[in-house]
TrEMBL record:
Protein's name according to its UniProt entry: Eugenol synthase 5
Family matches, as Gene3D superfamilies: NAD(P)-binding Rossmann-like Domain, UDP-galactose 4-epimerase, domain 1
A molecular function (GO) term: oxidoreductase activity
Keywords: NADP, Oxidoreductase
Keyword set includes NADP: yes
Residue intervals of the NmrA-like domain: 8-298
Source domain of life: Eukaryota
InterPro entries: NAD(P)-bd_dom_sf, NmrA-like, NmrA-type/Isoflavone_red_sf, PCBER-like
Length: 315
């Protein structure tokens, strides 16, 4: 089937962020006129300069500046949000602007994690996902054409957290038995695939799950691959499931969220333990000329170029 990935004007909220910058770079690489909505007092000056030099149009505005939002949205075809989790409900302002503008062909909200409409998790993570679900329901109710993306684990972010490639350590922490399977995708690939599906007629009003078969690994698989590559044998420190569950019940909000995510992803395996439904799309099956970097390949890269440290929330 010939797929018409039309050149589209793409507006990205949160484009200077951890994930957003990969989407902006991908959008330019794939030839789309690209716009980034960034706060007037953003401190991301280096990245904004990089974007300008690549031909990105920067729109300086606050998320609650309704008129500016509507103007920005009216000028483009596709809107993508990669706003951070604390700003999840700010996306309702984007939904309002898209409704009023009436011209948007696709909106992708800031999901990019586990598939929130398919999983059931510990209460602190459940409350987190419930807010993201509410944004999905608002988009559906407003009849805005959408694509909901489940990108699963950001590979650099989580491999860095689990294996700590930049630290000279002899031990590795294993959550639970280490046998549950998890999906890990590189942030760069998530950027490219997100822009591809955002402009792909086959993914309109669909959930797209990024679950390439080469990237489904357990903690044990990951450690064993890492031991082969580094020639080292690590001492494994197991943290039992009960300890993680207890922490999720006793830590204050929001510190209880990361442990709940660890439980869901690495002990219960929620990124890999369900079958796709009839209408769902699996990203790696879409583009024969494109493939995700495998976990094995990513470990080769991370061995010599350790990725950015994981967010403070996971320390
Ligand atoms: N699957 C995974 O492994 C994984 C891991 C982490 C996060 N996530 C998800 O990825 C998505 C994006 O998160 P991220 O960590 O990439 O975001 P981020 O880097 O924390 O933030 C993205 C951008 O949002 C803007 N921003 C920050 N605070 C704001 C505020 N108070 N009001 C308005 N704008 C604000 C900033 O842009 P300006 O300064 O230019 O305005 C920032 O660069 C979220 O949905 C998150 O839940 C998934």
């Amino acid at each position: 089937m010939v797929v018409d990935n039309k050149i589209s004007k793409i507006l990205i909220f949160g484009g200077t962020g951890y994930l957003g910058k990969h989407l902006v770079r991908a959008s330019i690489k794939l030839g789309h006129p690209t716009y980034v909505y960034s706060r007037p007092d953003s401190n991301k000056t280096d990245i904004l300069d990089e974007f300008r030099s690549m031909g990105v149009t920067i729109i300086k505005g606050m998320i609650n500046d309704h008129e500016k939002l509507v103007m920005a949205v009216r000028n483009v075809d596709v809107v993508i949000s990669t706003l951070p989790y604390p700003q999840v409900f700010d996306q309702l302002k984007i939904v309002e602007a898209i409704k009023l503008a009436g011209n948007i062909k696709r909106f992708l909200p800031s999901d990019f994690g586990v598939e929130e409409d398919r999983v059931s998790v510990l209460p602190p993570f459940e409350a987190f996902l419930e807010k993201k679900r509410q944004i999905r329901r608002a988009i559906e109710e407003a009849r805005i054409p959408y694509t909901f993306i489940s990108a699963n684990c950001y590979a650099a972010y989580f491999i860095n957290y689990l294996l700590r490639p930049s630290e000279e350590k002899d031990e590795i922490t294993v959550y639970g038995s280490g046998e549950a399977k998890t999906v890990m995708n590189s942030e760069e690939d998530i950027g490219i695939y997100t822009i591809k599906v955002a402009t792909d007629p086959r993914t309109c009003n669909r959930i797209v799950i990024f679950r390439p078969p080469t990237n489904v690994v357990s903690q044990r698989d990951l450690i064993s691959l890492w031991e082969k590559k580094t020639g080292k044998t690590f001492k494994k420190i197991h943290i039992p499931e009960e300890e993680i569950v207890a922490l999720s019940q006793t830590l204050p909000d929001p510190d209880n969220i990361p442990v709940s995510i660890i439980h869901s992803v690495f002990i219960k395996g929620v990124t890999a333990n369900f079958d796709l439904k009839g209408d769902d799309v699996e990203a790696s099956s879409l583009y024969p000329d494109l493939r995700f970097s495998t976990v094995d390949e990513l470990l080769d890269v991370f061995r010599f170029n350790p990725p950015e440290p994981a967010a403070a929330a996971f320390e």
